[in-house]
Amino acid sequence: MITFxxxxxxxxxxxxxxxxxxxxxxxxxxxxxxxxxxxxxTLIRLLxxxxxxxxxxxxxxxxxxTKLKGRELPELRRHMGxxxxxxxxxxxxxxxxxxxxxxxxxxxxxxxxxETALQVLDLVGLHGKMAxxxxxxxxxxxxxxxxxxxxxxxxxxxxxDEPTGNLDPINTWGIINLLVKINELGTTVLxxxxxxxxxxxxxxxxxxxxxxxxxKDEEKGKYIxx
Amino acid sequence: MVTAVYRIIKYGxxxxxxxxxxxxxxxxxxLLSVIVFLxxxxxxxxxxxxxxxxxxxxxxxxxxxxxxxxxxILKLKNVLEKLTEVxxxxxxxxxxxxxxxxxxxKADEVISQALSELNENPxxxxxxxxxxxxxxxxxxxxxxxxxxxxxxxDKVSYGQNQVVIDRLAKIISVGKQAGxxxxxxLVVIAVIVVFNTILLAxxxxxxxxxxxxxxxxxxxxxxxxxxxxGILYGFLAAFTALVLLSPFIYLASPYVEIFxxxxxxxxxxxxxxxxxxxxxxxxxxxxxxxxxxxxxxxYLRD
Lengths: 226, 302
Known about the structure:
heterodimer; A: 4-stranded antiparallel beta sheet; 10 strands; B: elongated
């Protein structure tokens, strides 16, 4: 489903990613781990076509991401649900409106929006807080809204870049469990994190980055800090 | 498609409302441009009517010698009527000329007294010639200056009237040029103001824009609300301009008719209301859309 083939990325002669190659199959749960600056976020930006690699190819499904033109990007991104550390929610809208906004922007019909938004907010455990504005929610609740928004267009993959970076341990596990549940329902999950406790407890595939290179790629891997 | 358009309009109104104070200021600048533009169109119409009103009064008057035979005068009339430049020729005999003179001055006792004491008619026969094209009066006058007519023609008179027409046409032309220049200046200012307002709207909506990109909104969906806002600015400016101009035109109309007979400004305005609205709308919406597209191209690149 996702293929990185000899991908390198440099900024101002500084190599961030060096000759990365790996594949992710449908329905996998893959954690990409490494210290800060290892290249995790850069890898994700290349996958969602926010940037282009200096060398190599990135393939998502039948899309060659590296060769897509600007007008083709919206179609690619409708297959992805993206979650960030800083949530990236609209603070002047409610939880429900944030989810609905994503569906309207993706061009979904109104009937589908009304049905799906409620279902998804229920799935993430926010049924009772749909009418709350974002600033009225805790960090964990905000991230749940972000997950609901990411899921609402039924993407092929959920891409989570340090989703628990701003959360306390209880909320962190709440979010991770939610991602596991989503994966069990059939959605591929790509989790970028430097939290070794999460990765080591999940016992899922782990791709370890260090200095821009893949140093390990293991099923039921462990994240061992060097 | 309908749903997408509805959503674009909805987000457009949200953008408009979010930046409402700046939006109002932008509409005011556009309004000024539209008022000057429409004023220019109306001024051009008034000018055309003014020139036309005076041109209708223009003719060449040919005065004959008192001993010129009437047959010769009538023969000249026939010849002139056959000229392609000539629209109409009116013959006024000596007797008719005296009647017209007496009628015109009947209130003047001195002239009336003098006329009654005259033994013979001092006035002469004349021909009043109207040209199809006012620019041809010079040619007709030159034709009448020919040697062959000198035995019967005493005087050919039109020069002074042409000077008046030329001056009036020049004044109107200068006025139009000044209006065009003013309109251009205001258009430039309006474009800059709308540009900056849309830029501000994009900046204040940058969170929404980044999320729209993230969830796969099409470029048209991202850009649409800003283009709609540009159209909205233009529409409100054009509509308000006509609403504001209407009472002024209604009040000014009788005064304009005094100076320019036949120019019923209010009737012209009503008869051409849709056309003026359409042209004002095209003008102001054009500015709004061009400014929006320019800023979108620069700041919402793929």
